[in-house]
Amino acid sequence: MARYTGPVCKLCRREGMKLMLKGDRCMTPKCSFERRSFPPGQHGQKRARKLSDYGLQLREKQKARRIYGILEKQFRKHYEEAQRRPGATGENLLQILEMRLDNVVYRMGFADSRSQARQIVRHGHFNLNGHKTDIPSLIVKVGDMVALRENSRGKEYFKVVQEEIRRHDLPVWLNLDIAALTGRVVSAPLRTDIDATMEEQLIVEYYSR
Questions:
Q1: Does 1.10.1050.10 match the CATH number of domain 8-38+51-97+196-207?
Q2: Residue range 23-51: average pLDDT?
Q3: Where are the domains of the chain?
Q4: pLDDT given at position 198
Q5: pLDDT in tens, 101-149
Q6: Residue 55 and residue 77: Cα distance in Å, rounded?
Q7: Pair 96, 139: CB distance under 8 Å
């Protein structure tokens, strides 16, 4: 499957904001966006042109895709599912993105970034409701239990995680047992619980053209 494998800092520069694609590194002076906040490319430092309505909508959609690390086809499927659900389509979309298994693992503190969370899920380190799963795009439900598998607990990476996870800020819609390295989805996230700096209505307008 196609996936962007270039420098992720270029994606932050293109969107004009930190997308937190490298986890804690993004909060240090090593962050490329701190040194070069202008868009990448030879024309990046020229005066920015005013975007059209379509341009604003496209950039917001691309920003969301890049934050959650999703390709266009899958992102479109999430949008269509959000349309089918009752309520505001934009908020439904963000809720679906937040309740992807890779994002839940990231939110619980098992990984520094969503790309890292996707990788450890793909490697089969987690059980969902007692069953092994390696599907990062799986949408969890309220009441689902996510647990680190028994044979993964002895790995050095997860020993370090268990120490550092205590300092992690856990969203209110998740519950975490640090000793057991298990977490539960206690509620669906509300818009106020999602810290993603996006204008979801622009995404709805983009797909409604």
A1: yes
A2: 58
A3: 8-38+51-97+196-207, 100-185
A4: 83
A5: 999 999 999 998 898 999 999 999 999 999 999 999 999 999 999 999 9
A6: 22
A7: yes
Q: Compute the chain's Rg from CA coordinates.
A: 18
Tokens matching residue 118: 């996707």
CB atoms within 10 A of CB 170: 14
- The distance from CA 113 to its chain's CA centroid, rounded to whole angstroms, is 8
How far apart are the C-alpha atoms of 164 and 109, rounded to whole Å? 8
Pick the CATH number of 100-185 from 3.75.10.10, 3.90.550.10, 1.10.287.1700, 3.10.290.10: 3.10.290.10
Q: How far apart are CA 140 and CA 104, in angstroms?
A: 8
- Model confidence at 1, pLDDT cuts 50, 70, 90, reads very low
Gap between the Cα atoms of 72 and 97, Å rounded: 13
Distance CA 54, CA 51 (A): 8
Q: pTM value?
A: 0.81
Cβ proximity of 203 and 60 under 8 Å = yes
Torsion angle, alpha carbons of 74, 56, 191, 88, to 10:
-70
Diameter of the chain measured on Cα atoms: 55
Both tokens assigned to 163: 């120490």
